[in-house]
Amino acid sequence: MSRNRSVRTPVSRPASPPGRATAGAHELGQNLLVDREVVDRVVDLVPDADRPLVEWAAGRGALTLPLARLGRPVEAVEIDPRSTARLARVVPANVTVTRADILRHAPPSDPYDLVCNVPFHLTTPVLRRLFTLPDWQRAVLVTQWEVARKRAAVGGATLLTAQWWPWFAPRLDRRVPAAAFRPRPSVDAGILLLDRRAEPLLPVARRRDYQRFAAAVFNGPGRGLHEILVRQGLSRADVRRWAREHRVAPGALPRDLDARAWVVAFTVASRGR
Ligand SMILES: C[S@@+](CC[C@H](N)C(=O)[O-])C[C@H]1O[C@@H](n2cnc3c(N)ncnc32)[C@H](O)[C@@H]1O
Questions:
Q1: CATH top-level class for 7-196?
Q2: Looking at 75-84, 101-110, 121-130, 224-233, which range is the least confident one?
Q3: Which atom of ligand 1 is nearest to the CA of 60?
Q4: What are the Cα distances from residue 165, in Å, to 16, 103, 151, 220, 237?
Q5: How many angstroms is it from 57 CA to the middle of ligand 1?
Q6: In the chain, where are the structural domains located?
Q7: Could you read off the pLDDT of 116-145 as tens digits, one per residue?
Q8: Of 111, 223, 226, 230, which alpha carbon lies 20 to 30 A from 142's?
Protein backbone atom coordinates (compact mmCIF):
# COMPACT_ATOMS: atom_id res chain seq x y z
CA MET A 1 0.00 0.00 0.00
CA SER A 2 1.21 3.51 -0.68
CA ARG A 3 2.04 5.81 2.21
CA ASN A 4 -0.03 8.77 3.23
CA ARG A 5 2.53 11.29 4.38
CA SER A 6 0.23 14.23 4.92
CA VAL A 7 -1.31 15.47 8.14
CA ARG A 8 -4.72 17.01 7.74
CA THR A 9 -5.18 20.03 9.96
CA PRO A 10 -8.76 21.25 9.71
CA VAL A 11 -8.80 24.91 8.91
CA SER A 12 -12.31 25.66 10.17
CA ARG A 13 -11.19 25.55 13.80
CA PRO A 14 -7.89 25.62 15.63
CA ALA A 15 -6.10 22.28 15.70
CA SER A 16 -5.46 22.70 19.37
CA PRO A 17 -6.09 25.26 22.06
CA PRO A 18 -3.16 27.52 22.93
CA GLY A 19 -0.50 25.70 24.88
CA ARG A 20 -1.82 22.21 24.22
CA ALA A 21 0.29 21.40 21.19
CA THR A 22 3.49 22.12 23.02
CA ALA A 23 2.39 20.39 26.21
CA GLY A 24 4.58 17.66 27.65
CA ALA A 25 3.98 13.93 27.41
CA HIS A 26 2.63 13.80 30.95
CA GLU A 27 0.26 16.70 30.46
CA LEU A 28 -1.10 15.08 27.28
CA GLY A 29 -1.69 11.76 29.01
CA GLN A 30 0.76 9.98 26.72
CA ASN A 31 0.60 6.54 28.29
CA LEU A 32 1.17 4.51 25.16
CA LEU A 33 -0.08 0.95 24.76
CA VAL A 34 2.76 -1.53 24.53
CA ASP A 35 0.92 -4.79 25.20
CA ARG A 36 0.20 -6.73 22.03
CA GLU A 37 -2.66 -8.73 23.59
CA VAL A 38 -4.47 -5.59 24.67
CA VAL A 39 -4.04 -4.04 21.23
CA ASP A 40 -5.41 -7.22 19.62
CA ARG A 41 -8.36 -7.26 22.00
CA VAL A 42 -9.25 -3.64 21.21
CA VAL A 43 -9.13 -4.38 17.48
CA ASP A 44 -11.21 -7.57 17.94
CA LEU A 45 -13.91 -5.52 19.64
CA VAL A 46 -14.39 -3.31 16.58
CA PRO A 47 -17.58 -4.60 14.94
CA ASP A 48 -17.31 -6.39 11.64
CA ALA A 49 -18.85 -3.73 9.39
CA ASP A 50 -18.02 -1.62 6.35
CA ARG A 51 -18.19 1.64 8.25
CA PRO A 52 -15.16 3.92 8.52
CA LEU A 53 -13.23 4.07 11.77
CA VAL A 54 -12.24 7.11 13.76
CA GLU A 55 -9.46 6.79 16.27
CA TRP A 56 -9.18 9.56 18.82
CA ALA A 57 -5.87 10.15 20.60
CA ALA A 58 -3.88 8.08 18.13
CA GLY A 59 -0.45 8.85 19.61
CA ARG A 60 2.27 6.97 17.74
CA GLY A 61 -0.14 4.50 16.23
CA ALA A 62 -0.12 1.50 18.59
CA LEU A 63 -3.78 1.01 17.67
CA THR A 64 -3.86 2.90 14.37
CA LEU A 65 -1.70 0.48 12.43
CA PRO A 66 -3.56 -2.69 13.52
CA LEU A 67 -6.86 -0.88 12.87
CA ALA A 68 -5.63 0.07 9.40
CA ARG A 69 -5.14 -3.62 8.65
CA LEU A 70 -8.92 -4.10 8.87
CA GLY A 71 -8.92 -2.43 5.46
CA ARG A 72 -11.46 0.25 6.37
CA PRO A 73 -10.90 4.00 6.07
CA VAL A 74 -9.39 5.21 9.34
CA GLU A 75 -9.16 8.81 10.54
CA ALA A 76 -6.51 9.05 13.27
CA VAL A 77 -6.88 12.17 15.38
CA GLU A 78 -4.08 13.41 17.60
CA ILE A 79 -3.13 16.78 19.06
CA ASP A 80 0.62 16.40 19.46
CA PRO A 81 2.41 17.60 16.29
CA ARG A 82 5.41 15.32 16.86
CA SER A 83 3.14 12.30 17.06
CA THR A 84 1.09 13.27 14.00
CA ALA A 85 4.23 13.89 11.94
CA ARG A 86 5.62 10.55 12.97
CA LEU A 87 2.34 8.75 12.37
CA ALA A 88 1.83 10.30 8.93
CA ARG A 89 5.17 8.80 7.86
CA VAL A 90 4.17 5.23 8.65
CA VAL A 91 0.45 4.85 7.99
CA PRO A 92 -0.91 3.14 4.87
CA ALA A 93 -3.11 4.90 2.33
CA ASN A 94 -6.42 4.06 4.03
CA VAL A 95 -5.43 6.20 7.06
CA THR A 96 -5.85 9.96 7.29
CA VAL A 97 -3.98 11.63 10.11
CA THR A 98 -5.75 14.69 11.49
CA ARG A 99 -4.07 17.00 13.95
CA ALA A 100 -6.89 18.18 16.18
CA ASP A 101 -8.27 18.32 19.68
CA ILE A 102 -10.59 15.37 20.23
CA LEU A 103 -12.89 17.61 22.22
CA ARG A 104 -13.45 19.69 19.08
CA HIS A 105 -12.76 17.32 16.20
CA ALA A 106 -15.63 17.12 13.69
CA PRO A 107 -16.31 13.44 13.04
CA PRO A 108 -17.87 12.02 9.85
CA SER A 109 -21.57 12.64 9.32
CA ASP A 110 -22.20 9.01 8.29
CA PRO A 111 -22.13 5.99 10.60
CA TYR A 112 -18.68 5.05 11.90
CA ASP A 113 -17.07 3.22 14.80
CA LEU A 114 -14.77 4.92 17.24
CA VAL A 115 -11.70 3.72 19.13
CA CYS A 116 -9.90 5.72 21.80
CA ASN A 117 -7.23 4.99 24.34
CA VAL A 118 -8.45 7.98 26.32
CA PRO A 119 -5.95 10.42 27.81
CA PHE A 120 -6.86 9.88 31.46
CA HIS A 121 -7.28 13.57 32.25
CA LEU A 122 -9.90 13.94 29.50
CA THR A 123 -12.05 10.95 30.39
CA THR A 124 -15.20 12.75 31.51
CA PRO A 125 -15.21 15.42 28.76
CA VAL A 126 -14.56 12.71 26.15
CA LEU A 127 -17.48 10.63 27.42
CA ARG A 128 -19.78 13.63 27.60
CA ARG A 129 -18.83 14.60 24.07
CA LEU A 130 -19.33 11.08 22.75
CA PHE A 131 -22.82 10.85 24.16
CA THR A 132 -23.87 13.94 22.24
CA LEU A 133 -22.33 12.96 18.88
CA PRO A 134 -24.91 11.37 16.61
CA ASP A 135 -23.29 8.93 14.19
CA TRP A 136 -20.87 6.54 15.87
CA GLN A 137 -22.24 3.05 16.41
CA ARG A 138 -19.76 1.42 18.75
CA ALA A 139 -17.04 3.09 20.81
CA VAL A 140 -14.20 0.90 22.09
CA LEU A 141 -12.54 2.87 24.88
CA VAL A 142 -9.58 2.32 27.15
CA THR A 143 -10.11 4.29 30.37
CA GLN A 144 -9.02 4.10 33.98
CA TRP A 145 -10.32 0.89 35.53
CA GLU A 146 -12.64 2.61 38.01
CA VAL A 147 -14.15 4.76 35.28
CA ALA A 148 -14.70 1.75 33.02
CA ARG A 149 -16.44 -0.09 35.87
CA LYS A 150 -18.58 2.87 36.83
CA ARG A 151 -19.64 3.69 33.28
CA ALA A 152 -20.56 0.05 32.70
CA ALA A 153 -22.59 0.16 35.94
CA VAL A 154 -20.55 -2.62 37.53
CA GLY A 155 -21.21 -2.39 41.25
CA GLY A 156 -23.79 0.37 40.75
CA ALA A 157 -24.61 2.97 38.11
CA THR A 158 -23.66 6.63 38.22
CA LEU A 159 -25.94 9.48 37.24
CA LEU A 160 -24.06 9.97 33.94
CA THR A 161 -24.61 6.33 32.97
CA ALA A 162 -28.26 6.41 34.05
CA GLN A 163 -28.84 9.60 32.06
CA TRP A 164 -27.65 8.02 28.79
CA TRP A 165 -28.73 4.41 29.31
CA PRO A 166 -31.91 4.57 27.18
CA TRP A 167 -29.74 5.36 24.13
CA PHE A 168 -26.44 3.59 24.84
CA ALA A 169 -25.59 0.15 26.20
CA PRO A 170 -22.27 0.14 28.08
CA ARG A 171 -20.28 -3.06 28.73
CA LEU A 172 -17.09 -3.70 30.63
CA ASP A 173 -14.81 -5.98 28.64
CA ARG A 174 -11.76 -6.50 30.84
CA ARG A 175 -9.18 -5.05 33.14
CA VAL A 176 -5.90 -3.86 31.63
CA PRO A 177 -2.88 -3.81 33.94
CA ALA A 178 -0.90 -0.58 34.27
CA ALA A 179 2.09 -2.54 32.93
CA ALA A 180 0.43 -2.52 29.48
CA PHE A 181 1.41 1.18 29.07
CA ARG A 182 4.63 3.19 28.80
CA PRO A 183 5.14 5.18 30.84
CA ARG A 184 3.27 3.08 33.35
CA PRO A 185 0.29 4.95 34.87
CA SER A 186 -0.42 4.80 38.60
CA VAL A 187 -3.66 2.83 38.14
CA ASP A 188 -4.92 -0.03 35.99
CA ALA A 189 -7.15 0.61 33.01
CA GLY A 190 -10.14 -1.17 31.53
CA ILE A 191 -11.72 -1.69 28.13
CA LEU A 192 -15.18 -0.18 27.98
CA LEU A 193 -17.61 -0.71 25.11
CA LEU A 194 -20.42 1.67 24.34
CA ASP A 195 -23.03 0.59 21.81
CA ARG A 196 -25.63 2.93 20.44
CA ARG A 197 -28.90 1.08 20.86
CA ALA A 198 -30.46 0.15 17.52
CA GLU A 199 -33.79 0.50 19.33
CA PRO A 200 -33.54 3.19 21.98
CA LEU A 201 -35.57 2.65 25.12
CA LEU A 202 -36.94 6.19 24.82
CA PRO A 203 -37.29 8.59 21.88
CA VAL A 204 -34.62 11.29 21.67
CA ALA A 205 -37.36 13.90 22.04
CA ARG A 206 -37.80 12.77 25.66
CA ARG A 207 -34.11 12.99 26.49
CA ARG A 208 -34.15 16.28 28.31
CA ASP A 209 -37.13 15.36 30.49
CA TYR A 210 -35.74 11.91 31.21
CA GLN A 211 -32.33 13.29 32.17
CA ARG A 212 -33.95 15.83 34.48
CA PHE A 213 -35.95 13.02 36.08
CA ALA A 214 -32.82 10.86 36.54
CA ALA A 215 -30.98 13.78 38.16
CA ALA A 216 -33.94 14.50 40.44
CA VAL A 217 -34.09 10.85 41.53
CA PHE A 218 -30.34 10.60 42.07
CA ASN A 219 -30.08 13.82 44.02
CA GLY A 220 -33.60 14.08 45.38
CA PRO A 221 -34.63 13.97 49.03
CA GLY A 222 -36.19 10.88 50.52
CA ARG A 223 -35.13 7.76 52.39
CA GLY A 224 -34.69 5.15 49.67
CA LEU A 225 -36.09 4.84 46.19
CA HIS A 226 -39.71 4.29 47.15
CA GLU A 227 -39.97 7.61 48.91
CA ILE A 228 -37.92 9.43 46.27
CA LEU A 229 -40.17 8.15 43.47
CA VAL A 230 -43.34 9.13 45.28
CA ARG A 231 -41.91 12.65 45.52
CA GLN A 232 -41.31 12.48 41.76
CA GLY A 233 -44.97 11.89 41.05
CA LEU A 234 -45.48 8.10 41.23
CA SER A 235 -48.31 6.81 43.43
CA ARG A 236 -47.37 4.36 46.17
CA ALA A 237 -49.26 1.60 44.31
CA ASP A 238 -47.31 2.36 41.11
CA VAL A 239 -44.02 2.24 43.00
CA ARG A 240 -44.92 -1.13 44.57
CA ARG A 241 -45.91 -2.59 41.17
CA TRP A 242 -42.78 -1.18 39.50
CA ALA A 243 -40.53 -2.50 42.30
CA ARG A 244 -42.08 -5.96 41.97
CA GLU A 245 -41.72 -6.03 38.17
CA HIS A 246 -38.10 -4.84 38.21
CA ARG A 247 -37.09 -6.74 41.36
CA VAL A 248 -36.13 -3.57 43.17
CA ALA A 249 -35.37 -4.41 46.80
CA PRO A 250 -36.95 -2.27 49.55
CA GLY A 251 -33.62 -0.70 50.52
CA ALA A 252 -32.46 -0.12 46.92
CA LEU A 253 -30.83 3.15 45.87
CA PRO A 254 -30.85 4.89 42.47
CA ARG A 255 -27.43 3.38 41.71
CA ASP A 256 -28.98 -0.12 41.91
CA LEU A 257 -31.47 0.33 39.05
CA ASP A 258 -30.99 -1.03 35.55
CA ALA A 259 -31.83 0.78 32.31
CA ARG A 260 -35.33 -0.67 31.97
CA ALA A 261 -36.29 0.09 35.56
CA TRP A 262 -35.22 3.72 34.98
CA VAL A 263 -37.24 4.05 31.79
CA VAL A 264 -40.39 2.52 33.25
CA ALA A 265 -40.15 4.69 36.39
CA PHE A 266 -39.81 7.76 34.16
CA THR A 267 -42.72 6.70 31.95
CA VAL A 268 -45.00 6.12 34.94
CA ALA A 269 -43.93 9.41 36.55
CA SER A 270 -44.63 11.28 33.28
CA ARG A 271 -48.16 9.83 33.12
CA GLY A 272 -48.92 11.33 36.51
CA ARG A 273 -47.91 14.86 35.42
C1 LIG B 1 -3.18 7.35 26.25
S2 LIG B 1 -2.33 8.01 24.86
C3 LIG B 1 -2.87 6.89 23.59
C4 LIG B 1 -1.91 6.82 22.42
C5 LIG B 1 -2.12 5.61 21.48
N6 LIG B 1 -3.46 5.59 20.96
C7 LIG B 1 -1.80 4.33 22.21
O8 LIG B 1 -2.77 3.61 22.52
O9 LIG B 1 -0.64 4.07 22.46
C10 LIG B 1 -3.30 9.45 24.60
C11 LIG B 1 -2.93 10.27 23.39
O12 LIG B 1 -3.85 11.37 23.32
C13 LIG B 1 -3.16 12.53 22.89
N14 LIG B 1 -3.96 13.66 23.34
C15 LIG B 1 -3.99 14.26 24.57
N16 LIG B 1 -4.89 15.24 24.59
C17 LIG B 1 -5.47 15.25 23.35
C18 LIG B 1 -6.48 16.04 22.78
N19 LIG B 1 -7.11 17.02 23.46
N20 LIG B 1 -6.83 15.81 21.49
C21 LIG B 1 -6.20 14.84 20.78
N22 LIG B 1 -5.24 14.04 21.28
C23 LIG B 1 -4.88 14.25 22.57
C24 LIG B 1 -1.80 12.42 23.53
O25 LIG B 1 -0.85 13.21 22.86
C26 LIG B 1 -1.54 10.90 23.42
O27 LIG B 1 -0.88 10.61 22.23
A1: alpha beta
A2: 224-233
A3: 5
A4: 31, 22, 10, 19, 26
A5: 3
A6: 7-196, 204-271
A7: 999 999 999 999 999 999 999 999 999 999
A8: 111
